[in-house]
Design goal:
mainly alpha; transmembrane; single chain
């Protein structure tokens, strides 16, 4: 169950990052509200996951899901630039997540 909490927390990190961008510096009410709620839920699920998972694993996987997810959202939804180095970086982060899970 801890891994399910952790993956959900990581996905919510992507949600709050996206809506933080949409909030335009917390000047728009709805995206700001979604950001805050998603942040709280993400941290709560991370805390639940950390009951049974080591800090080093839980935090690394949480931030990794957020980083790769934000890269994908930025690329496919926000139309941010993509180049070989950025894709390689995302793949290396993903490889690190897999290795952390296996360790």
């Amino acid at each position: 169950m801890s891994w399910i909490y952790l993956v959900a927390a990581g996905l919510l990190e992507v949600v709050w990052a996206y809506f933080m961008k949409q909030s335009e510096g917390f000047t728009r009410l709805v995206p700001t509200s979604i950001t805050i709620v998603a942040m709280i839920a993400s941290f709560a699920l991370l805390a639940l996951a950390m009951r049974n998972l080591p800090l080093s694993t839980a935090y690394t996987v949480w931030t990794g899901i957020g980083a790769v997810g934000a890269f994908l959202v930025g690329t496919f939804i926000l139309g941010e630039p993509v180049n070989a180095m950025r894709v390689t970086a995302a793949l290396l982060i993903t490889a690190g997540l897999v290795l952390m899970k296996l360790s």
